[in-house]
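ARCHIVE RECORD
Type: protein–small molecule complex
Small molecule: adenosine-5'-diphosphate
Source of inputs: curated submission
Record status: active
Notes field left blank by submitter.
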Amino acid sequence: MATLDIKNLHVYYGHIHALKGIDLHVEEGEIVTLIGSNGAGKTTTLRAISGLLRTPEDTSISHDGSELTQIRADQIVARGVVHVPEGRRVFSRMSVQENLTMGAYTRKNQQMVKDDLDYVLKLFPRLQERRAQKAGTLSGGEQQMLAIGRALMSSPKVLLLDEPSMGLAPVLVETIFDSIEQLNRTRGITILLVEQNAQMALQVANRAYVLETGRITMSGDAKAMLSDPKVIAAYLGL
Ligand SMILES: Nc1ncnc2c1ncn2[C@@H]1O[C@H](COP(=O)(O)OP(=O)(O)O)[C@@H](O)[C@H]1O
Ligand SMILES: [Mg+2]
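STRUCTURE (tokenized, with ligand):
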């Protein structure tokens, strides 16, 4: 039983058939990446998992064996499946610290919340330095750290990351990917990573799926894909 098991996922936007029957699974403790070009359906996949989109009756999305398609988005978060959306939507008028605290607003155990806050501030020292700063004044990379940090504050078992590298300078991309690896390794958080940056994503992931116009066209070991001629030609071309 995989921690995340997606079977026959279809999504329609009116007449647009955006996802055409996707099957995908993520085992506990894995980093799995879903790569694909702009418009392939990556964000749609994450939004469907998070309960933000309607799916037909014969679509199944389950987490630890229980069905997510029938429950609300906030209940999905409470189950431990937490989405860091594309474009890092932080609360720009709130401070870094307030943004992080917002991530934990439904949690009861204040000691555990405090421990998680300490963990996030150690994982991202830049956030520690900028605790009192308004989130809207952070750089893009710092806002991405904050978005991931806020998700960590809700005590996730599975993190869904939508293009965390988008728009960031190469050195910050490295930092973000290092921290993704670290929270997977040290906290055992399972990760489904959506990326256009196939090179970086395949380097950190255990397994990968390639999405093309709403269909999975390839899947397998991430490192093997790095040297697959078809992947190189389509996604790693220099
Ligand atoms: N709200 C929407 N309404 C209509 N079409 C949409 C909407 N969101 C996405 N789409 C379409 O669905 C397809 C997949 O989009 P998306 O999941 O955002 O792709 P990706 O994240 O891989 O770039 C695209 O053709 C896009 O234009
Ligand atoms: Mg997208």
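CURATOR ANNOTATION: The chain has a mean pLDDT of 95.
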